[in-house]
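Repro:
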Amino acid sequence: MVMSSFSASGKLMLFGEYLVLRGSKCFAIPLNVGQQLTVKKKKEAGVSWKSFEGEECWLAFELSSKLELISSSDQKKASLVVKLLKIIQNENPELTIDNLCFTVNLDFNREFGFGTSSTFISLLSQWSGVNPYLLLENSFGGSGYDIAAATAHQAFVYSVKEKMIGEVNLPKSITNHILFVFLGEKQVSAKEILAFKDKEVSSSQIDEMNSIIQQATTSTHIEEWEKLMVKSENLLSSILKVPTVKDHRFSDYPFEIKSLGAWGGDFIMATYRELSAAQEYFINKGYNVFYSYAQIVKESTL
């Protein structure tokens, strides 16, 4: 039986959240977890689809050879996939979307905000040959940095206009002092993006973020990195009119903390000097899901 396999990496944005939507650069990392797609031929007409998170099948549906929905476990989610398949069919009419069985396997918790949607878009693009940014624009929206991360091999700088600008090698003097902590309150990116549209952002604020990112890409000391975290947090706090996550939740933490992605949920980045002490602090605060940089980031970025 003919089978094709594809893989896409999850992501985290370290600097540039929100402002990347207004033209600033952002600084992101690909993760060593992600999503995989296998496509097999089948004898029966139509399309079979199953999406798994570990052993759990969270989406299953059947389509006719005309991509009409026959049955589904979640009509809303299935309809979005159908929409994307029809776009693919329109963009690449030579691709036959029939007699196919799709299996998608996610190896991280969907609540983490690591890029369930972006890895999915990347997988469909890799399989079909259709531009992933076009698929993103017609589905979930956003800056597209997560699309770039899905096939990136190490940390990188990105902008909406230029896409992948350059790769970055972060030194261990920084990465050995970074912990990613899950707050347990997943944010809906599309909703946060919509809310941000009403915020006023000046060109000087965009310039300030770009300066922070430029310094971050060449930073060699954790103390320098921490100063950039504080600058970024204060900048976004003034724009969003929301207190920084450290002021709001972790004011007694001895080092620095920065929000990642949509403020108020998902993961934060915390610096530390002793990993065990940092882990103990967050456990005592009720946060027991965390990863060191080395645990979660693609090996080539270390």
